[in-house]
Write a structure and sequence with these properties.
Shape: globular
Helix content: 40-55%
Largest sheet: 2 strands, antiparallel
């Protein structure tokens, strides 16, 4: 059992490649409070040590086994960013600048991806980020992705229940 992400309804990659790549991107939240700073294996395993502890299923370690082999001489976050770009845009030359610009525009650009006030409020409440991420920050952050993965692992380990999509609290009236 391992976790993958289907990014922009295109290709799937291991979730740990996205986590490592996000370490090389600025999401608008100060680096002092960022959960991912270097994207190293030890850092990611430590992030999920208290959640990914099922004796039969280790989602993060199994996802790391699906990654390519990293070069020890280069920063792992930059390598993951280039690998992410290579998977998403196979025809384009994978340079660090192209990869950084692509991920920045896909996730952290306010013109392309805006959560609005209600979306940020719901996300902060659901993921327990109300004191960490200000409600005025209306794009996805590294905290959001880390907590979403924690939530996915908890749901898969039957520690918490899935959301009821038919519940009226999850609806918006237009």
């Amino acid at each position: 059992d391992y976790l993958t992400i289907k990014f922009n309804r295109k290709r799937t990659i291991p979730i740990t490649v996205l986590l490592r790549a996000m370490a090389a991107i600025d999401d608008g939240i100060p680096d002092e409070v960022a959960p991912i700073k270097t994207g190293s294996t030890e850092e990611i395993l430590a992030l999920y040590a208290d959640v990914d502890n099922h004796p039969d299923r280790s989602y993060i370690q199994n996802s790391m086994k699906m990654e390519p082999v990293w070069d020890e001489k280069k920063p792992i976050a930059e390598q993951a960013l280039i690998e992410f770009y290579r998977k998403m845009r196979p025809g384009d030359p994978p340079t660090l600048d192209n990869a950084r610009e692509y991920l920045q525009s896909q996730l952290f650009d306010k013109r392309r991806y805006d959560l609005e006030r209600v979306g940020r409020y719901k996300l902060n409440i659901r993921l327990g980020l109300d004191g960490i991420i200000p409600r005025t920050h209306r794009t996805i952050t590294r905290h959001d992705v880390v907590r979403l993965i924690e939530r996915m692992i908890n749901i898969n380990n039957d520690k918490i229940n899935k959301d009821d999509i038919d519940h009226l609290g999850n609806r918006r009236v237009k």
